[in-house]
Design goal:
Number of helices: 12
CATH class of the largest domain: Alpha Beta
Shape: globular
CATH architecture of the largest domain: 3-Layer(aba) Sandwich
Mean pLDDT: 86
CATH topology of the largest domain: D-Maltodextrin-Binding Protein, domain 2
Number of domains: 2
Helix content: 25-40%
Radius of gyration: 25 Å
Number of strands: 14
Largest sheet: 6 strands, mixed
Distance between the termini: 36 Å
Strand order of the largest sheet: 1-10-6-9-7-8
Low-confidence stretches: 1-57
């Protein structure tokens, strides 16, 4: 299968969102001798006063912290820009990191956060339940690939049939830290599955892991600058990241790219241990199709801000932005606990 180079042209479009105001006015009883006209006027004034008070409460404002996977940096930034067209007084403070690191900012460092976007939905219940969250929504997918540039060693020769041989030929290749970033443990899963899939790849994992050319960084997007500067020949990334940054990439076979649900049983043969919620605890991550999850930490004080942002993320406008950035959305979205979801989000899930 030939290598691919994708460049995305993203068009920023105006986004509008209709606001529905539900007004409940309780009118006081009037005395029996009051003129009918006076009652009508009093009711009208009361309704007008109630409407004015409600409308002034609708606009959202304040800080909204969003901690997200590094691979969500570009689409989440565009979603936040579109969201601010509707809610200009919401100050969005976004931080990208490995998904596990992102979650631990809330659970261990006790940082205030309104939205968590994880590249692996299963980290949310593993690291946040029950103290910091009790639901997640699966909203997007992705797949693993091997990125490179025109100046990478063997750039003219590498294919989906020989990439594992070239990585053992004295080149440099990068991956993210599995304890911090799902792309890191998924890379190790790709190596394990490649041993099974290819007839001549026995011992591949041991040959690649911590070899001289093996370079590790906290999160996968940290590797992009090293690729572009020529300090790194290859890097394992998501296809969405490769597309967003205009990188060449090798499309891996569906048996090992962790994207095809029909190979779920095959993927489950791969296992990687990562750091758990406690210092001496480990979690065994098992290979499965890549799906992203979002949740709202239960201790966030401005829940209405977070709900409005996630509402926009899951809306047709948010879905379109995800698609434009090479990140396939999952529609309808999926949740593990619909009863715990904010009412505004239930319409998006099955």
């Amino acid at each position: 299968m030939p290598s691919k180079k994708i460049k995305l042209t993203r068009v920023c479009k105006a986004v509008s969102l209709a606001l529905v105001l539900v007004i409940a006015a309780v009118l006081g009883a009037c005395t029996s001798d009051a003129p009918t006209e006076t009652v009508t006027q009093t009711q009208t004034e009361t309704q007008t006063s109630t409407q004015t008070q409600t409308i002034t409460e609708v606009p959202l404002y304040g800080n909204l912290q969003i901690y997200h996977a590094g691979s969500l940096t570009i689409p989440f930034a565009e979603i936040s820009d579109a969201f601010n067209e509707i809610y200009p007084d919401v100050n969005i403070l976004a931080e990208g990191a490995g998904s596990a690191t992102t979650i631990r900012k809330v659970t261990e460092l006790e940082k205030e956060c309104g939205v968590i976007g994880s590249a692996d939905y299963s980290l949310i219940p593993e690291l946040m339940y029950p103290d910091f969250a009790d639901w997640y929504i699966i909203f997007a997918s992705n797949q693993m690939c091997l990125t490179y540039t025109d100046t990478s060693a063997f750039a003219d020769e590498i294919t989906s049939d020989n990439w594992y041989e070239i990585l053992q030929s004295g080149v440099t290749y990068g991956r993210s830290d599995p304890d911090q970033d799902p792309c890191g443990y998924r890379t190790l899963m790709v190596w394990q599955l490649a041993e099974i899939h290819y007839d001549d790849a026995a011992g591949l994992y041991d040959s690649l892991f911590e070899a001289e050319g093996d370079l590790m960084r906290p999160k996968s997007v940290d590797l992009i600058a090293l690729l572009e500067s020529g300090d790194l020949d290859y890097a394992f990334e998501y296809t969405s990241v490769a597309a967003q940054h205009g990188l060449n990439y090798i499309e891996l076979p569906p048996e090992i790219n962790l994207a095809d649900v029909t190979f779920s049983d095959f993927y489950s043969q791969a296992e990687v241990e990562i750091a758990g919620a406690e210092p001496d605890e480990t979690i065994t991550m098992t290979g499965k199709p890549i799906v992203y999850g979002v949740t709202i930490p239960s201790n966030f004080p401005r829940i209405e801000l977070a709900v409005a942002w996630v509402d926009f993320l899951l809306s047709p406008d948010g879905v379109a932005i995800m698609e434009a950035n090479g990140q396939p959305p999952i529609t309808p979205a999926v949740t593990d606990n619909i009863d715990a979801l904010p009412e505004e989000l239930k319409k998006y899930v099955e």
